[in-house]
Each structure stands twice: as C-alpha cells, then as structure tokens.
Amino acid sequence: MPVRDIIGGENHTVGIHHSHAVRNGKTLDQDTVTVFVLRDGKVIECREFLEDTAASDASWA
C-alpha cells in the first residue's frame, strides 16, 4: 500500500494510501483513507474509508 500523504493533528491523523490486492482472481485497486483517533499520544480508534465499498466487498467475497 503506497502512502500518498499523511495529515496529522492533535486528535486525528489521516493517512491517504492506495490499496491493491488480488484474491481468487478478483482484483482490488483503489484509494483508501484511514483516520486514526488519538488520545494521550496513542491510537484509540481507526476508521477506514474506501473509494468504492461495493468493489471492496466484491473483491473479498
């Protein structure tokens, strides 16, 4: 997953990266954003946002 950019703040850090996977002849190839929620300098939550959730679901089905 090549990282395209990282944006950091006091309470959140956002990573923008490209996801690529091949499984059972199905290919996933899309941009993804991951948001890390920080508290006391530690990650307490992680949320992932996909460019195309239907395509992601289909690639893992």
How would you characterize this protein structure?
The protein has 61 residues and is mostly beta strands. The chain has one domain: Nuclear Transport Factor 2, Chain: A. The chain has one helix and four strands. It has a four-stranded antiparallel beta sheet. It is elongated. It starts with a strand and ends with a helix. The mean pLDDT is 90.
Distance between the first and last residues' Cα: 21 Å
Neighbour order of strands in the largest sheet: 1-2-3-4
Q: Whole-number average pLDDT?
A: 90
Strand content: over 45%
- CATH C-level class is Alpha Beta
CATH topology type: Nuclear Transport Factor 2, Chain: A
Can you describe this structure in just a few lines?
With 61 residues, the chain is mostly beta strands. It is 13% helix and 67% strand. The chain is elongated and about 45 Å long.
Tags for this model:
single chain; elongated; four-stranded antiparallel β-sheet; 67% strand; 13% helix; 61 residues; Nuclear Transport Factor 2, Chain: A; 4 strands; mainly beta
